Amino acid sequence: MSKLKMGIIGLGRMGMEHAKHIAANASQVEPLAACALDDEQLAAAKELGFKTVYKDYKEMLDKEDIEAIVVASPTDLHTEMCAYILQHPKKIHVFCEKPLDTNVADETESLKIYNLVKQSDAVFQIGFNRRMDRQYRAAYEQIQEGKIGEPQIVKITSRDPFVIPIELIKRIGGLLVDFTMHDFDMARYMMGSNIKEVYAKGGVLIEPELKEIGDIDTLALVIEFENGAFGLIDNSRQAVYGYDVRVEVFGSEGMLKVENVNKSTVEYYNKDNAQLKNPSPIFMERYEEAYISEMNSFIQSIQNGTPVVCSIEDVILAQRAAAAGLESLRTGKPVRVNNELTPAGNN
């Protein structure tokens, strides 16, 4: 089988992570071209093995014989870029980082991408990487096997180790749009049901500057699923002890828990106390294997026709849950989620 000719748009923190994994997959992939605005990022892509580099993604796509592309640009450019790629005369498969759009209250651009994906035979995968984490995957598979009976409650904790730069938050969306988006998807994934209703309470307890951009740093959510089950989500932008992400699923016949990952499983006990290592310091380290697995899964979907691990429907429904959460924060009331999607995208 010939190697898949791949390109990437965006070489920031997440883009460079994907670029490394593309370049390392020499048996299946040819790292053909990379696009970014920063000269140092482009030089780094060349060092990884990308043959050509560009500062204009349209020029790159028009000139290069790219078969698959990773969209890892700032979130506010995702829909623009995906629309251009999906309407290109060449068929180009797309891996796009989540979410599709920062404006979750207005679905116009996201539904445009939904329609284009449905009209195309190109593979389109969304980067909800937690689905490919082996711990979460193992829990999911045991739920599917019926090990805990009927799932009744899911509890998800997600806390970053530090507040990311305000200017970055402006480009990738606020807490609910960028951060909690993963939790909405994980909740749907684990429970096997769409989110029916969201009730959110949140505020600024850590970084006062977030008030100026209309964002929050601390969040608590109660969610109800269409199958009658419930969920609890708590988020924080600052956990001083590390990247704290845990999931618990309680069912009629038992419970499954996915705990934090750290560099050592050694625990020390003495007469005064017990000690263990803190969780991973940042999400890039915690999910490194998941990033590799999701990219491999994307490649397998292209080459073997296997279903994508995370579809266009998954991201739109997660965005709708986020929109409901934002409306709940504004009104102080529970908000229903519309989960209907038609092939034409008319809702």
Please provide a written account of the structure.
This protein is of the alpha/beta class and 347 residues long. It is 36% helix and 24% strand. The chain is built from eleven helices and 15 strands. It has helices at residues 13-24, 39-48, 57-63, 78-86, 108-119, 134-144, 166-172, 175-191, 283-286, 288-304, 312-331, and strands spanning 4-9, 29-35, 52-54, 68-71, 93-97, 124-127, 151-159, 195-203, 218-225, 230-236, 244-251, 254-258, 267-269, 274-276, 335-336. The strands form three sheets. A seven-stranded mixed beta sheet has the order 12-11-7-10-9-8-15. A six-stranded parallel beta sheet has the order 3-2-1-4-5-6, sandwiched between helices. Helix 1 (13-24) links the parallel strand 1 (4-9) and strand 2. Helix 1 crosses helix 10 and helix 4 (78-86) runs parallel beside helix 5. The chain is globular, with a radius of gyration of 20 Å. It starts with a strand and ends in an 11-residue tail after the last strand. The mean pLDDT is 94.
Mean pLDDT: 94
Strand order of the largest sheet: 12-11-7-10-9-8-15
Number of strands: 15
What class would the helix/strand composition place it in? alpha/beta
Unreliable stretches covering 5 or more consecutive residues: none
Q: Tell me, briefly, the overall form.
A: globular
Largest sheet: 7 strands, mixed
Oligomer: single chain
Q: Tell me the strand percentage band.
A: 15-25%
Count helical runs. 11
List SSEs in N-to-C order. EHEHEHEHEHEHEHHEEEEEEEHHHE
Radius of gyration: 20 Å
Work out the helicity level.
Answer: 25-40%
Distance between the termini: 41 Å
